[in-house]
Amino acid sequence: MKLKLIEAAVLLAILVFVLDCGALPACLDPTRSTWTTCGYNPTTDKYVINTHDVDWNGEDTIINQQEVDFDCKPSDNGEGGPQTSQNTADTIPSSTGTHASSPGARVHPSSAPISRRDSGGSGSTAGGFLPVQWLNLPFTAIAPSSASAPPACDASQPDIVVVNHAAGTLTRMGTCPLAVKASIPLVSRPLQVVVTPDGKQAVVSNFDNYVTFVNLQNNTVLQNVNTPGMNPAGVAVSPDGKTAYVCSFSATAPAVMVFDIPSRTMTATIPLNTQWPHSVSVTPDGAQLYVAFSDNDEVDIIDTLTKTDFAALNIPAPEGIDFSPTGTVAYIGSGGTNSTGSLVALDTKTLKTIKTYTVGSYPTDVRVMYGGAQVVVTNYLSNSISVVNTATGQVKTTSFGSGSPMGLARVR
Amino acid sequence: MLRLLPGLLLVLSATAQPLIYYRDAVNAASFMPQGLPGGGIAQGSIFAVFGSGLGPAQGLQQTKFPLSLTLGGASLTVTQGSATVNPIPVFVGSGQINAIMPSNAPLGAASLQVTVNGQQSNPLPIIIVNNAFGIFTANGSGMGSGVLQNFVTPSNQPVNAPTISAYPGQTLTLWGAGLGPVSYGDNIQPTVGNLPTEVEVFVGAQAVSRITYHGRAPCCAGADQIDFVIPNDAPLGCWVPVYVRTGGATVSNVVSIAIQNKGANTCSDAGNAFSAATVSGGKVGGFTAVRAITYEDVGVTAPVNVETEFQASAFYSLPATLFPFNPATSLPPAGTCTAYTRPGDMLNGDLPPGVAPSGTALNAGTITLTGPNGNQASSVPIPAGLPQFALGYFGGSIAGTTISGTLDLDPGTYKVTGSGGSDVGAFSTTLTAPAPIIWTGQNALLNVPRSQPLTISWSGGSSTDRVGILGFGEDLPSNSSTAFLCVAPEGATSFTIPAAILANVPATRANPLQSKDVIYLLSVPGSATATISASGLNAGSAKFTYVLGKTVIFQ
């Protein structure tokens, strides 16, 4: 039979549908990512900000380290605040306003193309983004099997902000070079910080009953909103940047406070049935909140439209939570102070566990990257970072001595 | 009479606490995700809710008018502020409820809840619109053969299928849901009459001029019928695209019908060698060598060309079914486009239904491509079991990165050989890698307004080039994807994608990495056609394929 016309399209359709990034293990966005964490150096008794290089094979290497004169991981219960599991640091705008680095380069014509966290991961990063070298599309070239040297740091890398729990400040740091740029006074005992998608503001929880809105364009406090008796802890911002959600770390009145960011006012309180909610995450579409109760082995799910807490899932000592780019999988750090921790992959449709990955002890921060192909986890007690390949199930855990990493922020 | 319409999928086990699955309330005919422009739930239409514990394990449906607000212990509420309405359940099972959205439901964002025997489900956000039409499909997936009846006589109206083709000039009855609200109760037997919503029907690439009815189906509350006449110059084929635009803006899912000249029952596609095997069953095999260059300039630090070369082979035994459909082989006729709308990330594993064929894998041994100078470019064994694709990577490069490999597929003559396996005999054939075509203005194409037709032009190659356009628009945060495929007539040097085909592509996000938006131009020069003749195969071909890709911003 003589073949005519359309077989090309037939085979190409086959190719496109087959040569997706689930079929080819190396078909990741191979842009090497750069992250920062807070750590501790017991030899010098100093806290440090580490810069990590994570390549597409999941190899994690500390490529730079800078001592800082403050405790950048506010996890000490002895100070009266809750242990915090995520968002102690976040990435903030680059000042260039564009990521096009060569003539003719085009990025999306956003009025404020801002870098923060991993733009290829959770939808919680709507708005700003970190551009990549190339995209996770079919017909990609395959990355070499051996990793090359980490790229040199780039002066255009965005800054990060880190809460300084003891001093009651928010520290702004440049990431290339690692250096403190500003110290912004807050109220007292700040716990978590999240930067809005447009990069213009940071929202900070202060355990001593304030939520602070910070203008990141001039490093000044816009407003301290008093929340009497609420003990703000976890913070999240909706993908559209209009709403902030803040947990009330409370035994008597646990809740999620809802703030309108433009007016910086609290517009609602969502009561919770379980004590001590300490972190909150938003699905990529903004439709649901996941609230972690680390002390009560529970994750609740809230419908943001009706502000209804509709599900309580039994997850052992849940900590940081992040989502696949499509919001179909929630990745939850779990296990608390057990000798090993877990990363629970939860089907957000059926609310059933898809898979459990073994990571280090006390997995705190969780960040999805490479379009959901990898998940990065800080293991606070085992002083390590795990990189999970969600396609193969492989987990690479790299120990960093006694660093006790906390506070993941992606800067490239 | 009340009927259970196609598309009512039954899911299994029940649990005590009803749970509506996240983002799983959709038009009962199209199943279009709410993240797409046509994914709203229309007033007065049947919609489907998926979850667990939604009703009895044994599905129930209403059997008489007026319809009750409760069925099998299940009821529904839709709330928007202080306004509450109750959708009417017409089918209830443990994993699915089909219900009618009341015609007086509030427009815009609302919250849906199900109550089963006094237990309330989670709330689910939905979007209610005046109209958003979905066409029922025979396989219940929202794509493939539509549920359209060929009018022969009042008592003889078979459902169109590749073996039950319609003919130009014939009247068809199209079944769907979402034409808009009615002025009477949604719980009573519908009144015959056109609804006020503007309705356009497209067959192939052209709008139908004769629509004789567009209103509720007399039998079935919440379901609509559109009667129209197939244009006399409609394209012939097994999977001719059909879609509906309502209100001048909202476009349905794209389904297909078979059209042949009067007197023929089984369809045929002049240019699709896999068509007959897809329709009637058969054993097919294909090989292609691909050179692909994608110019990426959205969401990247700097524009970059991503170049790759692959070979791919596939050998199947396809079963004969009444409504055969595989997006990879059930192609639209030349000069037309089709579109696939579904949840998920199509470019990352969430394939449209039917792509991985249900047929049997054929063992064809090892496929080897030998280059013009006699060097062995690639040798790939066909793997055992589904999905029976053999993929070989030749090389690739990305400028400015460490990724740089040898690119072998320069123009010239190549030999493709199969060693033969237990199902397919040995074969040898030659193919030509031609000079590439040039996509005119490829790198300059960036912003694509979805409300306007998009013309893509090319030059070079030969006059017998066969060109297809394959585009993807994906909105990751809402887990929604649209793909469109257009086939240009042989010898064409440009093609205009209708605005209606682009209508359900989601807009690119402000953060472009939350979208995946790319258009590919696929070209196979006619001189590259080579036949694979081997024992055990009904049809086979080997081709060189040139792919040009471009990232875009859908506006």
Question: How would you describe what is shown here?
Answer:
The complex is a heterodimer of chains A (412) and B (555). Chain A is mainly β. Helices cover 3% and strands 43% of the residues of chain A. Chain A has one helix and 28 strands. Chain A has a four-stranded antiparallel β-sheet, with no helix packed on it. With 555 residues, chain B is mainly β. Chain B has two helices and 40 strands. The radius of gyration of chain B is 25 Å and the shape is globular. The two termini of chain B are 45 Å apart. Chains A and B meet through α1 and β19 of A and β1, β22, β23, β28 and β34 of B.
Structure described in brief:
With 412 residues, chain A is mainly beta. Chain A has one helix spanning 7-18; strands at 33-41, 46-54, 60-68, 89-91, 160-164, 169-175, 178-185, 190-195, 201-206, 210-215, 220-226, 232-237, 243-248, 255-260, 265-271, 279-282, 288-293, 298-303, 308-314, 321-323, 329-334, 341-347, 352-359, 363-369, 374-379, 384-389, 395-399, 406-410.
What is the element layout, followed by pairings?
The complex is a heterodimer of chains A (412) and B (555).
Chain A: H1 7-18, E1 33-41, E2 46-54, E3 60-68, E4 89-91, E5 160-164, E6 169-175, E7 178-185, E8 190-195, E9 201-206, E10 210-215, E11 220-226, E12 232-237, E13 243-248, E14 255-260, E15 265-271, E16 279-282, E17 288-293, E18 298-303, E19 308-314, E20 321-323, E21 329-334, E22 341-347, E23 352-359, E24 363-369, E25 374-379, E26 384-389, E27 395-399, E28 406-410
Antiparallel strand pairs in A: 1-2, 1-28, 2-3, 4-5, 5-6, 6-7, 8-9, 9-10, 10-11, 12-13, 13-14, 14-15, 16-17, 17-18, 18-19, 20-21, 21-22, 22-23, 24-25, 25-26, 26-27
Chain B: E1 19-27, E2 41-42, E3 46-52, E4 60-61, E5 74-80, E6 83-85, E7 88-92, E8 96-100, E9 108-116, E10 119-120, E11 124-129, E12 134-135, E13 148-150, E14 171-177, E15 199-203, E16 206-207, E17 211-216, E18 224-229, E19 237-246, E20 250-251, E21 255-259, H1 275-280, E22 282-296, E23 304-318, E24 336-343, E25 360-361, E26 366-370, E27 376-381, E28 389-398, E29 412-418, E30 427-433, E31 437-439, E32 447-448, E33 454-460, E34 466-475, E35 480-487, E36 494-497, H2 499-502, E37 515-524, E38 530-531, E39 539-551, E40 553-554
Parallel strand pairs in B: 2-11, 22-39, 32-40
Antiparallel strand pairs in B: 1-3, 3-8, 4-7, 5-6, 5-9, 7-8, 9-10, 9-11, 12-14, 13-14, 14-18, 15-16, 15-19, 17-18, 19-20, 19-21, 22-23, 23-25, 23-28, 24-35, 26-27, 26-29, 29-30, 31-33, 33-36, 34-35, 34-37, 37-39, 38-39
